[in-house]
Amino acid sequence: MPRPLIPLTLKALSSCIMLIGEVFLETMATGIITQEEIDWLTTHQSSFDREEEAKALKIGRLLDEGQIQIGCRLLGAYRPVPQPNNA
Length: 87
Known about the structure:
Blueprint: H1 10-16, H2 20-30, E1 32-33, H3 35-44, H4 50-65, E2 69-70
Parallel strand pairs: 1-2
Helix pairs in contact: 2-4
C-alpha cells in the first residue's frame, strides 16, 4: 500500500530550496564553489531573473579567471583566526 503524500509546509519547502544570492555570497566570501552548487545553478538557470542571471554569469567569469575554485568548504575553515595583539 503506497504511503500517503504529506503536504510540505512553506518552511519545509524553503529549506530545500537553494537561493542564488546565498550561493553567490558564500562563493565570494570563500573563493570556493561546490560541485553541488554548480549543478544547482545549471539546473535552475532557465528560471533566473535578470539579477540572478548576472550573479551566475559573474560566478562563471570568476571561475574562468581562476579567482574562485571548485571544491568543498570545511566549516569555519575560511574564517581568519584572531591573532593576539603583541603591541
